[in-house]
Amino acid sequence: MLPQDKLDAILARHDEITAHLAEAAEPQLIVRLSKELAEIEGLAQKIRVWRQFDRAEADLVALAADPEMRAMAEEELAALRAGHEADSRELRLALLPKDVADEGSAILEVRAGTGGDEASLFAGDLFRMYQRYADSKGWKVEIISLSEGTVGGYKEIIAGVEGAGVYAHLKFESGVHRVQRIPVTEAGGRIHTSAATVAVLPVAAEVDVDIPDTDLKIDTMRSGGAGGQHVNKTESAVRITHLPTGLAVVVQDERSQHKNKAKALTILRARLYDAERERRASERAAERRAQVGSGDRSERIRTYNFPQGRLTDHRIGLTLYKLPEIMEGPAFEDVVQALVTEHQAALLAGDERGNG
């Protein structure tokens, strides 16, 4: 059963936003409320339709009692019930806790694993597949760094993929991808097996460096320098120390203490932001190691068998015999949707067990 209190809260919030928008005059408030309204408009409509089901079903059941109307009523009844079941599933999914990273961009990292030159070539093929898929979705791909293979492809390539819902679509790609095919360098026509690793990491939101005054120690001193009328006569130089980290900044460029303080705070914020970026990078490296393992062929999440034109995702038992189309990019959507559907089913099953 769906939690009626949550449905009530969504409808109440929808009505509240609508009422506020009718009275709001401040542009920023209108923009914020309009965005929130757009996010729940469709859901509120589905809730209202869903709640009309019992009455609509009763009306059609009564209509089916009339022999002349039975065939039409039963057909409409079947369609109504199917739609209600689909709406119920969508509502249950909408009420599940959201991964806040899903709607954002991602960092895509592809590295050659075991298999030498063939692994580098495969890493290049994988990256091109993701790039073509991103193009089909209207996302922007920007190369951050790359290391080319000796005969082509990449030993490593890292790119930012920017767009709405990037992480939600690509997050299941993290792991070891195995390829089975005849390398171009293979004269004997033997099938080789090699691997590449993929890591997909959510792009962290911009860090807002908010420094409480209690975290700062501000000292003023006389400016040093080459001399002159102003030097050493007023305490215009400023040293700001960030107490939690011990980071200190001294600025004595300006004759104004206030200007030096403002400059020092700007520099301090920049350094703290850079330190936060470094910390996040370290966390990302740890997450990457957890995601991709050692790059050994045995740790595969998916196999690409070129002689058979077959892609198999071992986590969900998915097998598709259209590998060339998938590697071209747009048909990769079939793989993504299968993984998303399986993930949603697992979430719903867990939610039902938790509420059972």
Describe the structure.
There is one protein chain. This protein has 356 residues and is α+β, with helices and mostly antiparallel strands. It has three domains: 4-95; 106-206 and 291-355, Alpha-Beta Plaits (2-Layer Sandwich); 213-281, Double Stranded RNA Binding Domain. It is 49% helix and 21% strand. It has nine helices and eleven strands. It has helices at residues 4-23, 27-51, 53-64, 70-95, 116-137, 166-170, 257-292, 323-327, 333-355, and strands at 106-112, 140-148, 154-162, 175-181, 192-202, 216-221, 237-242, 247-251, 300-305, 310-313, 318-320. The strands form two sheets. An eight-stranded mixed sheet has the order 2-3-1-5-4-9-10-11. A three-stranded antiparallel sheet has the order 6-7-8, covered by helices on one side. A hairpin with a 4-residue loop joins strand 10 (310-313) and strand 11 (318-320). Helix 1 (4-23) runs antiparallel to helix 2 (27-51), helix 2 (27-51) packs across helix 4 and helix 3 runs antiparallel to helix 4 (70-95). Mean pLDDT is 83; it is low at 225-232.
Q: In a few lines, what is going on in this structure?
A:
With 356 residues, the protein is of the alpha+beta class. The chain is built from nine helices and eleven strands.
Topology:
Layout: H1 4-23, H2 27-51, H3 53-64, H4 70-95, E1 106-112, H5 116-137, E2 140-148, E3 154-162, H6 166-170, E4 175-181, E5 192-202, E6 216-221, E7 237-242, E8 247-251, H7 257-292, E9 300-305, E10 310-313, E11 318-320, H8 323-327, H9 333-355
Parallel strand pairs: 4-9
Antiparallel strand pairs: 1-3, 1-5, 2-3, 4-5, 6-7, 7-8, 9-10, 10-11
